[in-house]
Amino acid sequence: MTLTITPQKVVGFHYVLTNADDEILDRSDEALEYLHGFNNIIPGLEKELDGLTIGDKKTVSVPAADAYGEYDDSLIHEFPKSAFTPGEELEVGLEVELESDQSSVVMLIKEIGEDTITLDGNHPLAGETLNFDVEIASIREATKEELEHGHVHSGDGDGHHHH
Ligand SMILES: [Zn+2]
């Protein structure tokens, strides 16, 4: 029986990620495993892997809207320098974590002015069309526990796994 990618399968795939300028943004070392149909990966990619089988190769182009979203100017905010902890390392391109009562959000330092610092809350890949060169490496049935959790439990000692 040939396994194909359908919801509730655990899929391993290799990928090379490039942007519209053909610059390589990321690539897999080992095959990346995810649980299909559970929004574990960006929706525009998941949709295109549906129905593939082991060994299949595909180039998938995902528009920004189906990847990390369009670039949103309203996520750019200016803060007075006094709002930052004295001694905190502030440099364009560094990430800072803003904490509120309920949650924290990571923003990128976009600009450092005389008295203000401009932060950008967009995902670094927002606004980018992403091209994935994908090769399917493995497909297996998910375990009951994986389905309950909605994600893959890898066999590597589960270092990333927290509940
Ligand atoms: Zn889990």
Summarize the structure.
This protein is mainly beta and 163 residues long.
Low-pLDDT sequence parts? none
Average pLDDT score: 91
SSE pattern: EEEHEEEEEEH
The CATH class of the largest domain is identified as Alpha Beta
**Ions, cofactors and other bound molecules:** zinc ion
Number of strands: 9
Distance separating the two termini: 35 Å
Oligomer: single chain
The number of helical elements comes to: 2
Instruction: Based on Cα principal axes, name the global outline.
Output: elongated
CATH topology of the largest domain: Chitinase A, domain 3
Largest sheet: 5 strands, antiparallel
What is the total domain count?
A: 2
Rg result: 19 Å
Class based on secondary structure composition and strand pairing: mainly beta
The percent range for helix content is under 10%
CATH architectural type of the largest domain: Roll
Based on the model shown, name its key terms:
163 residues, mainly beta, Chitinase A, domain 3, Thrombin, subunit H, 2 domains, 5-stranded antiparallel sheet, 4-stranded antiparallel sheet, 2 helices, 9 strands, 8% helix, elongated, binds zinc ion
